[in-house]
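pasting for the record
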Amino acid sequence: MKRVFLFCIVAALSIFYPIQAQNKLTVNADQGVVTTNQWTKYANNPVFGGADLGTYFDMTMLQEDGKYKMWFSWHRKRSIAYTESKDGINWSEPTIALASNRDSGWENEVNRPGIVKRDGVYHLWYTGQVWHDDWSKSRSWIGYATSTDGIHFERKSDKPVLTAEAGWERELTVMIPNVEWDADAKLYKMWYSGGETHEPDAVGYATSPDGLVWTKYKNNPIFSSDKNIKWEQHKVAGAHIFKHKDWYLMFYIGYESEFLARIGIARSKDGITNWERLPTNPIISPTTDEDGWDASSCYKSFVIYDAKEKKWRLWYNGRNGKLKVERIGLAFLEGEDLGFPKNKKIKNKK
């Protein structure tokens, strides 16, 4: 009787509080929650999306006006949509922010956005795609749009601002723009993924003074998979990169295979070279419950550090292959320390 009573208490508390993690892999079979390196998945994931709405994936965010603002990829609508939340868990009804444009010849579907707010203007870089039955012929480009309210965007060009070239980009795909404005250098800095279209191969870097004309880094890609690390041996992509104190942090997708992905962290002093991987990667992995919402893969993340609460929040999209849908979930890390070695320099190949 006591065992049943205690189980009921724990189950009730888990509705309101995330399940606590340890410094090692922890599995809670009742909730289907897996935590690693002290990252804890929210117990009531997913926080956004549902089977009736189709796939929600690859988001970008801003925190302002006491709200979390999210621009995300809505597969069913082939568009980028906007939603907002006061707590990062309960989200408003989405509205289309940028629709596809089949007449352009490169935007049959738009998705995978990156956002910067500067001088009262929202700057949105996004992926335009044309798909073929033969995936090897599908292509992706990066476009640019702006808005004064963050909801209604106008394209700044009818042409892509970034196009795949020969070499590692395979003349096929550039996608998933992650852009930061560097006020000191007076440059937009973009980290993007390139290569194959279904899932890109590696991460590149480019800069621009105006958001329209970009110069790619001559030694791209700046971050590639480490074939000696099983969980990312296939490819790496979908990076969220930003400056945090003295480091550029990269939260990236590592692919063990084309359909098995996890999330890891790396850091660099200049955001381009000498990336140091977190020794305890990956930080987010699929649940061990085969019926779980993220049982197959954990993809593109967006991360915000709350200095007041001393807590990291990480949103990511998870996939269940049986349901053939992706939705967005949330994970937490208490404290600012991400777990990198102290006073120790580690160099990794790009």
